[in-house]
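User: Modeling request: complex.
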Amino acid sequence: MVLSSSEIDARLERILYNVEKPGRYVGGEFNQVVKPWDQVDTHVALVFPDIYDVGSSNLGITILYQELNSRPDTLAERAYAPWLDLEAAMRSHEIPLFSLETRHPLSGFDIVGITLPYETLYTNVINLLDLSGIPLHSMDRTENHPLVIAGGHSAFNPEPMAEFIDAFAIGEGEEVVHDIVDAYQKSKANHHTRAQLLQNLAGIPGVYVPSLYQVEFHEDGCIQSVEPIHPQVPRKVRKRIVAKLPPPPTHFLVPSINIVHNRVAVEIMRGCSRGCRFCHAGMVNRPVRERPVDEIIHAIDEALEMTGFEEVAFLSLSSSDYTHILELVDRVSQRYCGKHLTISLPSLRIESFSIDLLEKLKEDARQGGFTLAPEAATDHMRNIINKPIPTDQLLDMVKAIYSRGWTTIKLYFMIGHPSETMEDVRAIAELCKLVISIGTKTIGRRAKLNVGVSTFVPKPHTPFQWVACDPPEIIEAKQQLLRQEMRAPGMKFNWTDPKETLMEAWLSRGDRRMAQVIETAWRNGAKFDAWQEHENSAFWLAAFEKHQLDPAFYVHRQRSLDEILPWDHIDTGVRKSFLMHDYQASLSGELSADCSQECHACGILPAFSDIQIQQRDSWKCPQPDNSLGN
Amino acid sequence: MQRFRITYAKTHSLRYTGNLDIHKIWERTIRRAGLALAYSQGFHPQPRLHQASPLPLGMSSLCEMVDLWLTDDSPILTPEQIQQALSEKAPSGLELQKVEVMPLDAPALQTQIAAAEYSVTFLDEIDTSALQDSVKMLLEQSTLMRERRGKNYDLRPLILDLQVQQSDPLVLTMQLSACENATGRADEVMLELQIDPALTRIERTRLVFK
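Assistant: Request completed. Predicted assembly structure:
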């Protein structure tokens, strides 16, 4: 039985008094869009499979919400994962997962679109489907169930979730979301079966329908072949991109409760030219496209007027690389000076110019601490990962930061890079001790250093995709070494639980067989894996054992260069041969220059040559034929 | 500087928004309306915005109050113009009822409230005579010791009035002390009456000034 929205409302009221932060579940935010349900053809639920506090500021959902609601024939509403307390009450009161805007059950929507920004949400996705009363497996759904779509960064390896998702949107969503709704409406008007609908979707560039592909495995567990089972389905699905970034969204939802990232967010550019070899975002978001300064300023004006927010964040993978960064910062600091507005500019390069930028932006810039991410502590190791920052330059920068008024520096490193030795790890501690001693010499005991050390996970579609993760005992030993060595007054050290790293590793590197493991782990009790990795680890290991799969096969195995990788049929536009070449360069410690300076022919230009022609000036790729002359 | 006092209703989904967050909602509503909120002096300037006695999470209200100060460079606006400007930019559930000009030296809003009145309705059918009996018994007590967040306190002197109204549907009304350090909570009264507050709707209907 499907509950009506008023029945859901009535049941919900009886349980909200007793849950933590009930404001998460009631919607009603300023700028929320509520359309008359019966007067709109197509109903889309946009789902962020984590709690409201984390998900409601997600820029991807914000963009899709505005894109879809701009269509008169479509409405988009939102749903998030209820926290454990509300979920228990929902299950005991038989309340299905509902949308915040109108409290319609998710099973009553035409399309359920789920974002997958990180892998540790997978069990939540299954939990939410279950809480919605939607069959977990794509093959069990009928014409009476919503179409379940997923997208986001993790969808670049869709295989672990292939059984649960009807279709994946690979790449950027601004345009493909309309194609999907159009195809859905057309199929519905023509009374197509669900199978026919899925075939129609598979015809849209950037849409991957996993049930239309057959995966065969070798005896050793490696993939033998991935073949489309229908002649009209492409062998490889190339991601979608927009040729030119459209104007950024400005009608942000203004939450009625405090959340993470309670602010205006403006993406100043997409993509990154640095080519850090560990960086998934840097590889899958190519090419670099920038927004004009005028468009950014206009968007801030409009967003502030629409929201009343007191904070603006510029988003990009590497803000310092934005061509007009100085002009942008100058204009923004003049325009909003004295207006009690906080402006944040993350992802700055390690060079003194970054200090100038932050000083211009805010009078109280020094409040928050200065964040740098060298990722590795020796020149040798930074060459391997292709993030070259000479140690001397880093130390000069540190001295400048402390002497120009900041008391706290935050440094981020990773352990577990390919070919890393204990000496490389020890170098992190040595470098940090040097940094805090510079701080103490410069400003005395007020100097603080916070160090975050995460563990490297080789991500699909990067030059390190073939590499093995450190075994758990090595990770433990490296962390133990750091715990011993990272002791100095004023210094704090945080690390990632190895269990969380391993979970992220098998989920991001898995193949289609992982689906049964994910489902069993969820049945064993795993959910909110990003929150309670420690408690959930046993559920996962039991699930691997039940299905006779070995986490080490996915995580700790160096893959051979000629192996068919589970994500090879997903095409990011960057060639596998380029990734291989860059990986080999890494093995010999060779750097690859920033690709705004020199084209390495990664493949992105030919892959999108048809749309690039329209947009020569907003793409930051040098033309391959004249790059040597620059 | 100009000082205004706003009376507003807090209803619908906003009843699940707590006081700190309501403060933020007001700041943002004022900014959206294009009014220049004054800030305190000092190292961490704070918007000059003061709420009357805090409303517990989950309750709605017809009579919330907030005082706000606008800077000198704001245009001189009539209370009606301010009400209009704010109403257009308020989120649903925040309904402006009245805007008054206040003298800058008027005492702080918080210190002026003596008591608050509430009305309670019930999600389920309730036995009227049983409720009347338990209200009567409660009022006969001279002390009602309760524990809240690890502190013991006496609820009885905070209950200034408690009555079952002969209406359909049934309504329970009460007046509770709302002085600083002596504030009664309507949901605590419900618990004392052995009624689960989750199965009621509690609405604040009036603030009583000293």
